[in-house]
Amino acid sequence: MRARILERRVVQGLQSASALERVGDFYFVIGDDARDLFRLDLNFNIVGTTRLFASNTSPHERLAKKIKPDLEAVCCVQANGKRELLCFGSGSKSPARDVCYRVDVTNPASPQNARAVALTALYDALRANSEIVGAHQLNLEAAACTPDTLSLFQRGNISGMHTRAEFDTHAFMQYLDAPTAPLPTPTLTHFTLPKIKKRHAGFSATIEWKDSILFAATVEDTDNEIDDGATLGSFIGRIDAAELRWIAVVEQNGEIAPVKIEGITLLDAHDNMFQFVAVTDNDDGESEILHIQVE
Questions:
Q1: Of the CATH numbers 1.10.150, 3.30.160, 2.120.10, 1.10.10, which one belongs to the domain with range 3-294?
Q2: What pLDDT digit, counting tens, does each position of 117-167 carry?
Q3: Helix boundaries (H) for the chain
Q4: What is the pTM for the complete model shown?
């Protein structure tokens, strides 16, 4: 399989994109240092924002690293007759990043009822599990959901622990409704991801497709989970059950593209050909939309 960038462009006003989800005729994007949820139309124009939390910053001002909730993963859940976006903090600093913001997108043209749920108890249990973090830090950077399962993915770019924590969706939503209740217990699956220049790739985006997980994994030249490093490239791949079926480095003009893919969604798939929309975080507050073909 080969992954090639067909088109790319900067989206003005979209800061530090860190996850992407399509709901109806809109794309929703969160930023790891943004206070708002961005809503884009199918031509990738920003048509609205939803405030996730109070902040003294201006609409396009980046939050300081020491205070930001570091929202890095998003998925859409359908339950109890409504659709909700779940926007997860990475958990890489506690308690500031131990949070999930829930947003009702039953009518995606009018998101409402954004509210926070503290996840410190759950994240502490994940941090304490060496099968998830090894000897390093929790750093959740991708999420995916079906009616039956909700998965969070540990970005193991430092530890080499590339872990999927798979929860029962109903039990997870019950926990979000009552976070003092017993913690949901995940099933864990580990994967091996490639390297670029001796640096591990790490999960950065996932979506469910049929019975598979389609994912992006990025590579940075950094020694820890907190600090950004030079972007070395990204991969797109497919997981079937516990098996990595294929993975391809993202190219442009025949070379590894130094892009940091943080969110993906599927445009089309047929005859072993996949077309994706992806968002990138350039670590300077600027974000790009990419059109990628894999075949």
A1: 2.120.10
A2: 999 999 999 999 999 998 889 999 999 999 999 999 999 888 888 999 999
A3: 120-127, 130-133, 169-177
A4: 0.94
C-alpha separations of 154 from 60, 150, 259 in Å: 28, 14, 20
* Structure-block tokens of residue 245: 């079926």
Tokens of 86: 């779940």
The 10s digit of each residue's pLDDT in 205-262 is 999 999 999 999 999 998 877 777 899 999 999 999 889 999 999 999 999 999 999 9
Give me the residues paired with residue 100 across strands: 88, 117
Q: Can you give the residue ranges of every domain in the chain?
A: 3-294
Q: Are strands 36-40 and 46-51 parallel, antiparallel or unpaired?
A: antiparallel
Amino acid at 199: R
Task: At 130, give phi and psi (nearest 5°).
Answer: -65, -15
Tokens of 22: 């399509």
The stretches of 80-133 forming alpha helices (DSSP H) are 120-127, 130-133
- DSSP-assigned letters across all residues of 254-283: TEE----EEEEEEEEEETTEEEEEEEEE-S
